[in-house]
Amino acid sequence: MSETVERHEFGAEVGRLLDLVVHALYSDREIFLRELVANAADAMDRRRFEALRGGAPALPPDAKVRLVPEKEARTLTVSDSGIGMSKEELGQNLGTIARSGTRAFSQTLATEKPAEGAEDTRPSLIGQFGVGFYAAFMVADRVRVTSRKAGAEEAFAWESDGRGGYTLEPAERSEPGTDIVLHLKEDAGEYLESYRLEHLVRKWADFITVPVAIVAEGKEEAANQGTALWRKPKSEITPERYTEFYRQTGMNFDEPWATLHWRAEGALEFTALLFIPGAKPFQAIEGERESRVRLHVRRMFITDEAGLLPSWLRFVQGVVDTEDLPLNVSREMLQATPVLTKIRRAVTGRVLSELASRAKDLEGGYASFWENFGPVLKEGIYEDFERRAEIAPLLRFRSSAVEGWTSLPDYVARMKDGQEAIYYLVADDAEALKGSPQLEGFKARGIEVLLLSDHVDAFWPEQLNRFEEKPLRSVTQGGLDLSKFAPEDSEAEAAPGIEALVAAVKAALAGDVSDVRATDRLVDSAVVLSASGSGPDLQMQRLLRRAGRGGAASLPVLEINPRHPLIRRLAGQPEAEIGQAAGTLLDLARIQDGDTPRDPVAFARTVAAALAERTNG
């Protein structure tokens, strides 16, 4: 070893810490490139700032971060024209884990506020914790850093294998800046491919202000856009440019239904550019439960798993960029800080405000939004207690009384005098709802019922419970009293002996229903199912049975229309004949509600026999 080469050892604890940084801190080894590019960008921003103050020579006109893969030598060089490091700084910044030159510089800048009225030219720096550089050892078994401090004549080289220590020695570099040469491991050959490097730059550093280029086979190609659209004033962005960005970042082909672009200033500062798609994505969002809004810190992409929006707004796409968010040392897992909580709250509130504004114009496009994403938005009623009151007016429904979509406020405005509840019916098939026997009594009395058929509709009404002090009641819930509302058409008289008929049917169906009773909420149908007054409604009972969680507590109630011709005829029959007909009545009620007969084969034989008898007669 030359006398000019100084050998330095990592301490035992420091060596172990470095091993943890390399093998445990980052979950994805490709992060190394993001960290090195971020460091290079910071170095160039620092030099630009120092040049304005007269403390360093100006950046060259073609200054950029250059990535140079050399396949024969198996090296990848990350080169910049930034502020550079002296020999002492190389030892301090690279020889001391978690000591960040960027952080120290940022702390100095924080005390240097610009004069009143003067432009703030302080750079926005990315690095914070001084560990990102060591991510290089995930892909390299040896790293050599050659750096020349801006304004100095000498250059020095730092080199290490990431295990026993590092060396410092004089070196040559014609211009200020830093070259980081990674001698790649055998399994890291992918990072010698230009297309792979370009993909990583596009993913992690596409929007940083410093240009990034890939130099391969004598050619230099730009690798990043260098312009963060969300940082531009809205007045400078055309609708076409918004659409282009929406399609590029979200891999969409449609036009955005809504574009939200704003900058939050004050105690909390961030910029957001969000889109609500104009069409459903190809991949069903019902299966994807997490929001994928991209989080950037100072234009550098951090993650799309920050949960910036709740799952019930996961259809929203776009970017949130902040300079205030503290990150943990790996930048891959965010700290649960009040700052992040405030950003989530602010972004969620802004999206809801946009929806509330657009919901006033149903014909102007809100209907198309609702048909695309309404079922997802409904999940917010079930999941988000704090936001239920804001979400409820945004919901839209089909109705037994009006065409098209309607809302809860509109329903309340149309309620009959004396009506105390908001009534709804849930089923799997939207079309079947319109002719459901469950609606007959309500239609006869001019009472409106909301028709729900989305996969979440069995769950959220119970969570909302009330709207404008009106309780929500399923029409299949037993015990509904409609006696205060007279039917609009006269009703036939009830069959004599109905009490005995009810008792006989109940005895015959013991174990299949929890109760049998006469009802005044049927007009054209002979029977209908309902739920007991204290249990879940019918749709929830069906879901429980499908999940194998049904039981005596979830058995339905069979309600009989005492004015129907079939029931009037049965009321005068012997108990044995009533017992035989009881099973068919139950199966008819099940079919009417979109369910299957208890024994489809037996039911088919019964119907066939009845038809044959009628034909012979």
UniProtKB/TrEMBL annotation:
In residue numbers, the region (A) covers 1-331
Supply the Gene3D superfamilies for this chain: 3.30.230.80, 3.40.50.11260, Heat shock protein 90, C-terminal domain, Histidine kinase-like ATPase, C-terminal domain
Query: Which parts of this chain are annotated as the region C?
Result: 543-617
Keywords for this protein: ATP-binding, Chaperone, Cytoplasm, Nucleotide-binding, Stress response
The Histidine kinase/HSP90-like ATPase domain covers which part of the protein? 28-188
ATP-binding is among the record's keywords: yes
Where is the major localization of this protein? cytoplasm
Is-annotated flag, keyword Nucleotide-binding?
yes
Q: Which SUPFAM superfamilies match?
A: ATPase domain of HSP90 chaperone/DNA topoisomerase II/histidine kinase (SSF55874), HSP90 C-terminal domain (SSF110942), Ribosomal protein S5 domain 2-like (SSF54211)
Quaternary structure per UniProt?
A: Homodimer.
Please report which protein family the annotation says this sequence is part of: Belongs to the heat shock protein 90 family.
Briefly state the protein's biological role: Molecular chaperone. Has ATPase activity.
Q: What is this protein called?
A: Chaperone protein HtpG
UniProt source species? Methylobacterium jeotgali
Encoding gene per record = htpG
